[in-house]
Specification:
InterPro entries: ConA-like_dom_sf (IPR013320), DUF1349 (IPR009784), P-loop_NTPase (IPR027417). This is Uridine kinase. Pfam families: DUF1349. It comes from Clostridium uliginosum. By secondary structure, the chain is α+β, with helices and mostly antiparallel strands. It has two domains: 4-178, P-loop containing nucleotide triphosphate hydrolases (Rossmann fold, 3-Layer(aba) Sandwich); 183-376, Jelly Rolls. The chain has nine helices and 22 strands. Strands 6, 8, 9, 13, 18, 19, 20 and 22 form an eight-stranded antiparallel sheet that branches. A seven-stranded antiparallel sheet has the order 7-12-21-14-15-16-17, with no helix packed on it. The chain has a five-stranded parallel sheet with strand order 2-3-1-4-5, sandwiched between helices. α4 (77-84) packs across α8 (149-161). The longest helix has 21 residues, at 4-24.
């Protein structure tokens, strides 16, 4: 059901529809959202509201015959469905025919805001709903289908088409979205919130200052497991909080490196054998490296990007969606750039997340985390 707050948004929508009808004689409305976001119910309510005054035609997308069944013969079922689910040429023809004798044409369904769909909607509406609520709304015998097949379908849609950005109006149809996301830590606006965090491998020298968290690293500290070098290190300085929720975590850092491999950044950790970190790492006379290390089942892998100049500050961001993580970096005021997308395989939902720094060679690396923010992100 659409709540009272959302009814106010709908009044704006009704005004927009009436404006289009007045100016153009008719209006074509597209309504989309993820599975079980309430598209069909909303479209029918809109039709009922207007059909006493206008001729209204509603198109609810029907998937191509046997496409769902056929998709499971493909090694990528959700991708197959994304590419083959609907015949949008037929939908476009149906719209053109409906325009001949109707004032309002409503089209509702999945994937209608794909980049390849060439339908000129006058108004695009996105019904916003979290994956969590979509799964909860499904029947018990179909929960696995919605938390796997349809979730991956829609995530591909988000990645390729960014459908929400195309919407003229986003209407929240999920009680979860009625609440503001929780802000766990916000150093800039609530210094005391950092006190929720605690140390894993506390450094000998550190303090909470007005302008940030200051750390001087101890020697021979690092996070690494087995791969390539053979050794195992699990003693980097990590200031963290614990959560089972999805989140966006950011930090800004100023640093004064001394020894090779001095590093600082963000980390997400389940245990010694399952974690990820992203950082900037000092390379003596060479320019520093940006990097991300992902460790699953006790084996680390390391992806890097070399900078072409020395820097003394950087900004990192990690976004969590279930077991999936997106790692981004901002250096030299280039704006946020993707550094890594990765997956932690461990089944544990609760993770430790926070800032880290370390010195694999010797002590004396000075680091100031001038901003730390960890905020709940709905998924």
């Amino acid at each position: 059901m659409i709540n009272e707050k959302e009814k106010i948004l709908n009044e704006d929508l009704y005004s927009l529809i009436n404006k289009n009808i007045k100016e153009n004689g008719k209006v074509i409305i597209g309504i989309s959202g993820i599975s079980l976001s309430g598209k069909t119910t909303f479209a029918n309510r809109l039709k009922e509201f207007y059909e006493s005054s206008y001729n209204v035609y509603l198109i609810s997308l029907d998937e191509n015959k046997d496409v769902f069944k056929e998709s499971f013969k493909d090694k990528n079922p959700s991708k197959f469905y994304y590419e083959n689910a609907y015949d949008f040429c037929n939908v476009k023809s149906e719209i053109e025919e409906a325009c001949k004798c109707n004032d309002i044409i409503i089209v509702e369904g999945l994937l209608i805001f794909k980049n390849t769909v060439k339908i000129n909607f006058d108004i695009k509406i996105w019904l916003d709903c979290t994956f969590t609520s979509s799964i909860q709304r499904s029947s018990e015998d179909k929960k696995e289908l919605y938390e796997d097949y349809f979730m991956w379908l829609q995530r591909q849609h988000f990645s390729i088409d960014n459908p929400k950005s195309k919407a003229d109006m986003i209407i929240k149809n999920d009680k979860v979205l009625e609440n503001q996301p929780e802000v766990f830590v916000d150093l800039l606006n609530d210094t005391a919130s950092v006190k929720k965090m605690k140390w894993l491998y506390e450094p000998s020298i550190w303090e909470l200052r007005k302008n940030g968290v200051y750390v001087e690293t101890d020697k021979i500290t690092d996070f690494w497991q087995r791969t390539h070098y053979g050794f195992r290190n699990d003693n980097a300085h990590m200031l963290y909080m614990e959560t089972e929720k999805d989140f966006i975590m950011t930090t800004k850092i100023k640093f004064d490196p001394v020894h090779q491999f001095d590093q600082c950044g963000l980390v997400v950790r389940i245990d010694e054998d399952n974690w990820l970190k992203t950082s900037i790492e000092y390379e003596l006379g060479n320019a520093p490296k940006l990097g991300a290390v992902v460790t699953n089942l006790g084996y680390s892998d390391w992806s890097t990007e070399e900078l072409n100049t020395q820097v003394n500050e950087a900004e990192f961001r990690i976004s969590r969606e279930g077991k999936d993580y997106k790692v981004e970096v901002n250096v030299l005021n280039r704006g946020w750039r993707q550094l890594r997308i990765c997956h932690l395989h461990n089944e544990e939902k609760t993770v430790k997340c926070g800032i880290y720094c370390c010195s694999p060679i010797n002590n004396g690396y000075k680091v100031l985390f001038t901003d730390i923010k960890i905020k709940e992100e709905y998924f």
